[in-house]
Recover the amino acids of this structure.
C-alpha cells in the first residue's frame, strides 16, 4: 500500500506555495508509505510536473518495484496505490517474467503491450492509479470497482495547474481550499447520513474524487500548460459476470463455497505478516475458517474495558474454538478511546462519523511493527443483504414491487436520512451518483445504493484512513471481483434477504462450517460503547462546544445548517445528530 501526489505547476505561479515547499504536509502520505519514497520532476518553459511516491513494502520487495515507474522510452509515468491480486496468474497469461515481483512492474508491461483500456479490464484488486502519457499529453486516473483506495484531483480556475493525490489535505492546500468551504447542501447531507454521499466529489468545493469503477481522461495541451478537456467515464471498470458453464453442475451453495475459498486464497498474502479482524460475526468468521485449515493465522479483536464487552470477548474465543489461532484481544480503555477519538476526527482528510474507526485505529496502532496487512469482512453486508435496515425497509414497504425503480431509490434515501431532506437534495444525490439500475429486481435497489454510496463514502474511507495512519493496509476479500460478480449477483435478491433473515447464502455455509451456535450468537463487532463513553460528554461538553463554534462562526454553511436543524430534529435522532455535528466541527477546526 502506498500514497502519491502529482503536481502540474505553472512557471508563472505567483503568491502561492510551490509544491517543493509542501514537505511538512506530507505526513499523511508518509504514513501510507513509510518504507520508500521517490520523486521525479519534468520541466519545460511553461510548466513543472512533479511526481511523488511513498511506498509500503508488501509485494515486490526489490528496488525495481520503487515508484514512480517509468518505461524505457519515457512515455509512461505511473503512480500506483494498492494491490493487483491476480498478478501471478496474469503474468503467466501474458508471458511476463516480473523479476521484481511488483504489481506495478506488471501494470507498466500491460499498458505498454495492450494499452489502458485492455489493462483495466484484466487486472483484479484494490487500487487507485495515475498514468501520464507523455507522448499524447494525457493523464489517466482510475480506481477499482468499489474505490477501496483514495484518489482526488482538482485544478485551478484557469485550468493551468493540476493536483492528483491520495490525500485530500495536500490537494486542498495546493488549490487554496479551506475545510470551511462546505456548501449548505454538503453540510446538510453529512448531518443527514453521517458521511457526504456524493461519489464524485469531496465534501469541500472544487475537489473531485475518482469514483469506484471510473476512468478519468484529462487531455492537456502540447505545452503541458492547460487542460483542454476532461472526460469522466463512470462505471468504466467493467463488471465481470462468470461464464454460464460455471453453474451447470454445482448447486448455488456449493458454487458460492468454492468461489469464496478460491477468492480468499488469492487475496491472502502468504509472504507478508498479517492478521484478521475478528468480530464474532459470520463474515470474519467464515474468512478465518476457510483459511485456517491451510495457514497459521493471527487474529485481532477489540475489547472495551466495560463488563459487557469483556464478556463478549471471552465468548468470542469460546465460540471460535480455533485452538491453532494466534489470537490477540486488545483491551481499549475509556481514556485511550476518547484521546484517539479527538485526534482522529480532526486530522483525517475527510470527515468521518463512524465510531468503529476508533477501535480500528487502535488495532492498527497495535499492529504496526507486527503486521503489515489486516483482513476485514467489509462489503459482505452490502453484497449479500446483511443489514437489518434492509428487512426493516422491506417491512415498511411490503408492496415495493408495485413502484418504479426511481421511486424506490428515493424512498430508500429518505429512509436512511435522519433529516427531512427536500426533494431537490434527494434528486441531486440520485443524479450525481448515476443511480441507473438495469435489473427489474426491486429488492436489489437498497443493496445497490449501499454498495455505491454507503460502502464507498463511509465504510471503505473509514477502514482506509484509520489503518493507514499507522502504515497498515486493510484488505476486504469479499470485494474481490470473483465474489462480487461470480457469486453475489448469481443469487436473486429474494435468495439473499427477506423480512425474517438476511445474508442467507453466507449463513447457510457458516452453519455447516462454524456451527449454529456461532452463527446464532450476537455479533460483537467493532462498534463502541456509545451510550457509556461518548454520550455523557456529547450532551454536556461537546454540545456546548458545537454551539459556541456555530455562534462564533455564523457565516459558515455548517453553522447555519446546524442552528436550523437542531431545532427541528426528531427527538429519537437528537444524539446521533449531535454526534455527527461534533465530528464535522472537529474536522473543520482541525485545519
Amino acid at each position: 500500500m502506498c500514497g502519491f501526489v502529482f503536481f502540474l505547476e505553472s512557471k508563472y505561479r505567483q503568491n502561492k506555495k510551490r509544491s517543493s515547499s509542501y514537505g511538512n504536509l506530507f505526513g499523511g502520505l508518509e504514513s501510507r508509505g513509510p518504507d520508500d519514497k521517490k520523486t521525479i520532476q519534468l520541466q519545460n518553459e511553461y510548466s513543472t510536473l512533479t511526481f511523488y511516491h511513498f511506498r509500503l513494502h508488501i509485494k515486490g520487495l526489490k528496488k525495481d518495484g520503487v515508484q514512480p515507474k517509468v518505461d524505457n522510452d519515457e512515455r509512461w509515468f505511473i503512480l500506483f496505490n494498492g494491490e493487483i491480486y491476480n498478478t501471478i496468474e496474469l503474468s503467466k497469461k501474458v508471458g511476463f517474467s516480473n523479476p521484481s515481483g511488483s504489481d506495478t512492474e506488471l501494470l507498466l508491461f500491460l499498458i505498454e503491450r495492450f494499452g489502458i483500456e485492455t489493462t483495466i479490464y484484466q487486472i483484479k484488486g484494490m487500487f487507485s492509479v495515475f498514468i501520464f502519457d507523455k507522448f499524447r499529453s494525457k493523464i489517466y486516473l482510475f480506481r477499482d470497482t468499489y474505490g477501496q483506495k483514495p484518489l482526488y484531483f482538482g485544478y485551478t480556475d484557469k485550468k493551468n495547474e493540476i493536483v492528483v493525490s491520495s490525500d485530500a489535505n495536500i490537494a486542498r492546500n495546493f488549490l487554496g481550499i479551506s475545510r470551511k468551504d462546505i456548501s449548505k447542501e454538503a453540510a446538510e447531507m453529512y448531518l443527514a447520513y453521517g458521511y457526504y454521499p456524493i461519489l464524485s466529489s469531496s465534501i469541500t468545493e472544487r475537489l473531485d474524487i475518482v469514483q469506484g469503477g471510473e476512468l478519468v481522461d484529462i487531455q492537456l495541451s502540447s505545452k503541458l500548460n492547460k487542460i483542454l478537456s476532461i472526460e469522466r467515464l463512470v462505471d468504466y471498470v467493467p463488471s465481470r459476470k462468470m461464464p454460464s458453464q460455471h453453474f451447470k453442475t454445482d448447486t448455488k451453495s456449493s458454487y458460492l463455497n468454492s468461489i469464496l475459498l478460491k477468492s480468499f486464497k488469492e487475496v491472502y498474502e502468504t509472504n507478508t505478516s498479517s492478521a484478521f479482524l475478528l468480530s464474532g460475526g459470520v463474515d470474519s468468521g467464515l474468512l478465518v475458517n476457510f483459511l485456517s485449515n491451510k495457514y497459521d493465522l493471527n487474529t485481532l479483536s477489540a475489547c472495551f474495558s466495560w463488563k459487557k464487552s469483556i464478556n463478549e470477548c471471552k465468548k468470542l474465543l469460546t465460540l471460535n474454538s480455533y485452538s491453532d489461532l494466534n489470537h490477540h484481544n486488545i483491551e481499549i480503555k475509556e481514556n485511550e478511546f476518547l484521546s484517539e477519538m479527538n485526534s482522529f476526527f480532526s486530522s483525517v482528510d475527510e470527515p468521518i462519523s463512524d465510531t468503529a474507526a476508533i477501535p480500528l485505529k487502535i488495532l492498527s496502532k497495535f499492529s504496526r511493527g507486527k503486521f503489515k496487512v489486516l483482513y476485514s469482512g467489509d462489503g459482505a453486508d452490502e453484497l449479500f443483504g446483511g443489514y437489518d435496515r434492509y428487512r426493516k425497509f422491506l417491512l415498511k414497504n411490503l408492496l415495493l414491487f408495485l413502484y418504479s425503480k426511481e421511486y424506490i431509490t428515493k424512498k430508500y434515501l429518505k429512509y436512511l436520512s435522519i433529516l427531512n431532506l427536500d426533494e431537490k437534495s434527494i434528486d441531486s444525490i440520485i443524479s450525481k451518483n448515476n443511480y441507473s439500475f438495469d435489473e427489474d429486481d426491486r429488492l436489489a435497489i437498497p443493496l445497490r445504493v449501499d454498495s455505491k454510496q454507503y460502502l464507498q463514502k463511509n465504510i471503505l474511507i473509514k477502514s482506509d484512513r484509520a489503518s493507514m495512519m499507522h502504515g497498515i493496509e486493510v484488505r476486504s476479500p469479499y470485494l474481490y471481483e470473483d465474489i462480487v460478480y461470480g457469486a453475489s449477483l448469481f443469487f436473486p435478491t429474494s435468495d439473499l434477504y427477506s423480512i425474517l433473515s438476511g445474508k442467507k447464502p453466507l449463513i447457510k455455509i457458516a452453519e455447516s462450517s462454524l456451527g449454529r451456535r456461532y452463527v446464532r450468537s450476537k455479533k460483537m463487532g467493532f462498534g463502541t460503547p456509545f451510550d457509556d463513553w461518548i454520550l455523557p460528554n456529547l450532551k454536556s461538553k461537546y454540545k456546548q462546544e458545537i454551539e459556541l463554534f456555530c455562534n462564533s462562526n455564523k457565516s459558515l454553511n455548517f453553522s447555519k445548517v446546524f442552528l436550523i436543524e437542531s431545532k427541528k430534529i426528531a427527538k429519537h435522532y437528537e444524539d446521533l445528530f449531535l454526534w455527527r455535528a461534533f465530528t464535522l466541527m472537529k474536522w473543520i477546526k482541525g485545519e
